[in-house]
Every structure is written in structure tokens, then in C-alpha cells.
Amino acid sequence: MSEVMNVPKGWIKTLLSDSFRLKSGDTKPYDTSKEGLFEVYGGNGITGYTQYLNNHQQNIVIGRVGEYCGSVYLVSKCWITDNALMISEKIIDFDLKYMYFLLKFINLNQYKSETGQPLLNQTVIGNILVMLPQSIKEQQKIAKILSTLDQAIEATQKLIAKEKNIKKGLMHDLLSNGIDEYGKIRTLKTHKYKESELGLIPEKWEIFRLFELGEIITGSTPSTNVEENYDGEMPFIGPVDFKGQSMIVDTEKTVSYLGLTESREIPINTIMTVCIGSTIGKMALSSQISCTNQQINSLICHGVNDYKFIFYNMQQYLLRQLNIEAGLQAVPLVNKSSFSKLILPCPLALEEQKQIADILTNQDKKIEIEEKNLAKLKELKKGLMDDLLSGRVRVKF
């Protein structure tokens, strides 16, 4: 923004120090807690609540220290701590919401100091050169467009959270009780249960160890001394590739067919589990023939079981077992032998497994659709901010 030379007609170029003055907030109130009349804002947003105020109107808060240096928040009546800056005085007239979007667009984090404790001071912010419309009405129109997008993004995020909560409830009910012959979720009142190592399970279910459900494979890394092993067509999967998705499609590294022969091949729809390090317990399915590094144990399900059901079941029951198995080691680790002996409750009937998997898969599809909508909205907002806040695209007002 500061390097833009061409100023659109009706816009001005100005230093932020010629637009407003900043001041630091105050020490966090002694009564800061989880409840209170007013939010307490630090550099990382809301940190608690209080009965006191040091900001009595709509304002902009900028994180000035630490990891959240340069974060920008639009606030109303609140308490602002000394980990943040706030506008204390307008020097020129501007719409506060417009300035909020402009400061977010600038990405103030890039101006932080490179010291051990990142800092962003008022002088550095003040020396940033920006452009803005002279007309307050044009500023307000731009802010309204971006605010409308923000509202759509927030609504979609809430919908995703709602659908994820529904899935969480479904997983608990379906993977604890299953579905009876009438397509209904069993209950203790209507069906017989029995004791197991994992608590009460339906009478027609059994406890299985993972090695009884399929073949267990621990990954291995092709020799890095052989250049031809890498940069091929086949995914080489490591913990870094587990990013919350159900199926891994893109990976940071790939191997050639030669590299694949030096590793341990896994087929499509293999269930992969990270078994070492801080991401222990993360799971995903392979989307094609692949291989993994040695930090991942994989389960290739036998045909008598539905792989999607086993995948959801592992997500529900294995994390706690993995953490117990890893114990208090400096680096959490569950080897192949221990992994193979972890247990799951499963219906003996393949049809019941498929019914449960279908319900959860349909719920995942709902979440996926909304997550794609969210990504589109964020991309649209990014493009509009670039166009509208640079004056490249003008609005009617």
C-alpha cells in the first residue's frame, strides 16, 4: 500500500500518523474473569471480561506485542490492555469501519520488530503510507460491502460449527449403540447390552484388536541418497500432510515408482494414523496408491469390514488409547506392536457397519459443502479488499 504511486481521483495519500494518534491500553483489570459486563481486549482479542471501561466508544484495537502483533479488532465499549494500542484521536475525518478494513488489509504484522519478543510501536505504524477516499460516503460504502461479506463468513462458520456438533453427537450415539434391524439407534431401554473392555456395548457387537480387522503396515522412507526416488507421481505421506481432512490428496513430498518399491506400498482407502510426536492420533484415508514415512501406522481393512466404519470408529476410540500407550515419554510414540493391539467395538454384521458409515459420510458431506462455501467467501473477500481498498475498483455512493 505504501508503495502505490497512482492515487485514484478523489482519493488522498497520507501517513497513518497524519490520520490518527494511537495510545497504549492499561494494565488488565484485577477482576478480569470469564464473566462480566465488558470485554477485555489484548493483542490476541478477547482475554476475559470486567466491570470496568477504559474505552467508551467504537474504536480500533491493534495488537502490539508477541505472537499476535498487528492483529486488528473493531470494538465498542471495553477495556483495552497494555498489550494493545487504540486510536486516541482522529486527525482527519474517516469512517472507523473503513479504517479497520484498511489496517487489516495492510497486514501490520509485517512491520513488527525482529527481536525475541516481537513488538509493533506507534512510530512504525505512523510511518506507513496509505490511500483512502476523500469522501466519507465512499468509505462507508466500501466498509458496508466488506462488512456484509464478513457477516456471511461468520454465518457460514457458525453453520459449520453446528454441523460438526451434530456429527460429534452422531458419532457418540452410532458408535456406542449402533443401528437395529429397524434402522433405529439402539438404547439401553430397548435392547440388550453387555460389558466389555470399553464399557457397555450392544449384545451383537464384539471387541476386536486392530490386527484382527486388517493388515497393519508401518511406513518407511525411501533412500534420500537416490535422487530418482522422489518427485514422482505417488504421494509420500508424513504427519505434516494431516491437516484435518478425511482423505489426503495433496502431499508436500512425492515419490517415483522406484521410490515406492523401496518403501511400503498402501492401497487406496487405507486408514493412516500418526503414531509419534505432537500430532499423534491424527487420522486420514489414502486417496490413491501411496506410501508413508515411519511415523505412521496404516490399517488395510479386511473385506469383511467396511473401511469407512472402521475409520470413524478409530477416530472415536483410539486417541485416548494412543495417549495412554505413549505414556509420559518426551516424544510420544506408539510402535506397530502396541498399535496392533488397540481395541475397537464393532458390529459383526457388515450391513450395520455400512449403515453407520453412510450416515456419518452424509454428515461429512454437509460439512464439506459449507467449508467449500466458506473458502469461496474468504477468497471473494480477499479479492474485494484488494480491489476496493486500492481504488482499482470504484463504488457508486
Reconstruct the topology from this structure.
Layout: E1 11-15, E2 20-24, E3 38-42, E4 45-50, E5 59-63, E6 72-75, E7 78-80, E8 84-90, H1 96-106, H2 122-126, E9 129-133, H3 136-177, E10 193-194, E11 201-202, E12 205-209, H4 210-213, E13 214-218, E14 230-237, E15 247-248, E16 253-255, H5 257-262, E17 271-274, E18 283-286, E19 291-292, E20 296-301, H6 307-326, H7 336-340, E21 343-347, H8 350-388
Parallel strand pairs: 3-7, 14-19, 15-18
Antiparallel strand pairs: 1-9, 2-8, 3-4, 5-6, 5-8, 10-11, 12-21, 13-20, 14-16, 17-18, 17-20
> What is the class of the largest domain in the CATH system?
Alpha Beta
Strand order of the largest sheet: 13-20-17-18-15
Provide the β-strand percentage band.
Answer: 15-25%
* Global morphology: elongated
Helix content: 25-40%
Q: How is the biggest beta sheet arranged?
A: 5 strands, mixed
Number of domains: 3
Structure write-up:
- This protein has 397 residues and is of the alpha+beta class.
- The chain has 3 domains: 11-134, Adenine-n6-DNA-methyltransferase TaqI, Chain A, domain 2, CATH 3.90.220; 137-180 and 349-397, Helix Hairpins (Orthogonal Bundle), CATH 1.10.287; 205-348, Adenine-n6-DNA-methyltransferase TaqI, Chain A, domain 2, CATH 3.90.220.20.
- It is 33% helix and 23% strand.
- The protein has 8 helices and 21 strands.
- The protein has helices at 96-106, 122-126, 136-177, 210-213, 257-262, 307-326, 336-340, 350-388; strands at 11-15, 20-24, 38-42, 45-50, 59-63, 72-75, 78-80, 84-90, 129-133, 193-194, 201-202, 205-209, 214-218, 230-237, 247-248, 253-255, 271-274, 283-286, 291-292, 296-301, 343-347.
- The strands form 7 sheets. It has a 5-stranded mixed sheet.
- Helix 3 (136-177) runs antiparallel to helix 8 (350-388) and helix 6 crosses helix 8 (350-388).
